[in-house]
Amino acid sequence: MNIAFVLLTHNPDEPAGIERSIASLAEGLREVGHHPLIIAAGPATPMDDSSLLRLSTLTLPRPAREEDLLALLADPTPVEREVRHLLATHRVDLVCWADAVWGIGYLNPAPADVRTALMVHVPRADQAMHQSLAHHPGAVITTGDFMIREMADAGLDTSSWHTVPNALLHQTAPPGPAEREQLRRSGPVRIVARAEPHKGTAELLAAFPDRLGRPVQIVLAAAGFEYWPGMQDQTIEQCGELAAGLPEVELRPALPWQQVQPFLAGAAATLVASTSPETFGNVAAEALSVGTPVVGYRLGHLPDLVGTAGRMVDLADGPKSIWRTLAELLDDRETYHAAAQRGPIEVAAFAPRAVAETFLNAVLQGQS
User: Fold this and answer.
1) pTM of the entire structure?
2) What CATH number did the domain enclosing 75 receive?
3) Of 22, 4, 10, 35, which is closest to residue 110 (Cα–Cα)?
4) Which residues contact 140 (CB under 8 A, 6 or more apart)?
5) Residues 93 and 108 both lie in one domain
6) Same domain, 262 and 342
7) For residue 148, which of 296, 281, 301 has the smallest C-alpha distance?
8) Residues 204 and 83 in one domain
9) 147 and 285 part of one domain
10) How far is residue 38's CA from residue 52's CA, in Å, rounded to a whole number?
11) For the chain, which terminus, N or C, has the lower number of CB atoms within 10 Å?
């Protein structure tokens, strides 16, 4: 089956959750014998391959804001026409709008004979979401029970929605028990986050303990979108200023995604301090897959994802509670190793092939 995903911001190795989930799902679909394509806006990059189709009628600035996109789509006719042409030319059987706006679900430019699905990775119950649902996609897919509850609370009928987790595109072997014990004793704390204020990195640095006794290495990455002009640069600058006064803290440049797992595998623990609910938690899943415990806020999907493979704290207790809980976990040898051993078990079902099969069951349910 030929399956197209529309995500206008998609770029190879983009440091963003929806982009990574689509790339991982596409790999799983290849493994089970299907032919995935991704339709994105321009400009092209040297890393593009034949499965990434660039629209000639739409080029996005980098970084782009949703307002930029909606202005460019004030007359959506050229883009709609080109998307339909691509779907017909590549004989697409199923098209998935990866978001109500960034995935043009609200436009739904699919030929009548092509199945459709809408993906809901972030909470939104605005006009664009209602327009997307009004097109009656063949399936609506989200990331887990948290999103089902969140969207139901926002007034949407989620009774027929399906949950499909994000897949882990790469696999790195977890450290053995002896290496994990050495990491517990003296290994670095490593944090990987998008350069977004709600990721809570600046708050963590502002609440840094007087002496942690080990290095803290932070990787911040800028994505192809942001919420207001200069948001990512401001976040990186603020974190840099805070880190400059902390001898134990090192701010590092962005990593290619295939290096994230090995980087987290060499950590004593990782922190996920998002102050807005994570709808899945890709970085946490990567850490768990290599046996690195996760400490974060008890928000969104994170508690269900982490389970007993880390520790969660209440957002109201603030970032100091994250540092305090981290220290307690690292000091408790038995609890720490139990969490490390549990991590790979918590995410064992997130292999690309398994996630692809879950996705196919969702989109083909009740269809001949």
Assistant:
1) 0.94
2) 3.40.50.2000
3) 4
4) 117, 118, 119, 120, 133, 158, 160, 161, 162
5) yes
6) yes
7) 301
8) no
9) no
10) 5
11) C
